[in-house]
Design a protein that fits this description.
Blueprint lengths: L9 E6 L1 H6 L4 E3 L5 E3 L2 E2 L16 E7 L11 E4 L2 H4 L4 E5 L2 E7 L3 E2 L19 E3 L3 E6 L2 E4 L3 E4 L5 E5 L5 E5 L2 E9 L10 E5 L4 E5 L2 E7 L5 E2 L1
Antiparallel strand pairs: 1-5, 1-8, 2-3, 4-19, 5-6, 6-11, 7-8, 9-10, 11-12, 13-16, 13-19, 14-15, 16-17, 17-20, 18-19
Length: 224
């Protein structure tokens, strides 16, 4: 029986192999009532490397600190690859399960920094103070994104096209349109919105052979 007191601003997460498989079947409900599958299959291509695929993307919330909002015990936590990419957050192991503790919320500077001798400032009001590696949670089949992350439906950035000589070629969309799966209500984006982003600004979270795209709110170019 665990008897751990979590830091007020942190969450304790249990990571097991079963979490990977259980999330495959999760569907989310949009505001309009329609349902879509959270993760879509990754199509394997020769020579196409999926970075960070070896890192766990989800875990189960064991406990949340007293100052943590929007997180409940039993939620499925969607985490950044850095959580399992190093041992900085590792608390220990229980029955073979990995226990990690991470700060739950991103914080922002409330004022500008003191100018340096050349007049430049290290940070400005509203810049990130601390960027949380907890991207969001899934509760009762619905994903809840946390600032500053927006979840997007995964789509391949490449497509087949025919050049002027009639030959097939592969083209890459540097700027593309993606569908919002979940965004924080204060972001101004809603489930099902179509947004324009640069492909290079996207990063992925993987669950075995499943993938979802993530982007920072500030990197969204516009809504269409």
């Amino acid at each position: 029986m665990l008897n751990l007191v979590v830091h007020p601003k942190r969450v304790l997460i249990k990571i097991t192999q079963s979490e990977w498989n259980n999330l495959f079947s999760i569907w989310i409900t949009r505001h309009d009532g329609s349902r879509v599958q959270l993760f879509s299959d990754v199509e394997v291509e020769d020579g196409y490397e999926r970075r960070f695929k070896q890192n766990v993307s989800v875990g189960t919330i064991v406990a949340a600190g007293t100052e943590v909002l929007g997180v409940m015990k039993g939620d499925i936590a969607i985490i950044d690859y850095l959580v399992t990419g190093n041992d900085d957050s590792l608390v220990g192991y229980q029955n073979g399960n990995r226990l990690v503790s991470i700060r739950a919320h991103t914080t922002y500077h409330k004022s500008d920094s003191t100018p340096m001798l050349d007049g430049r400032k290290t940070w400005k009001k509203g810049d990130y103070d601390f960027l949380s590696t907890l991207l969001g949670v899934v509760r009762m089949g619905k994903i809840k994104a946390f600032h500053p992350y927006v979840f997007l439906k995964y789509e391949k950035a490449t497509r087949l096209a025919v050049d002027q000589g009639g030959l097939m070629k592969v083209e890459v969309d540097n700027v593309c349109t993606r569908e919002v799966i979940s965004a924080h209500p204060s972001s101004g984006y809603s489930d099902g919105d179509k947004v324009v982003i640069k492909e290079s600004d996207l990063f992925s979270r993987f669950i075995d052979n499943k993938e979802v795209s993530v982007v920072f709110e500030q990197d969204i170019l516009c809504r269409v």
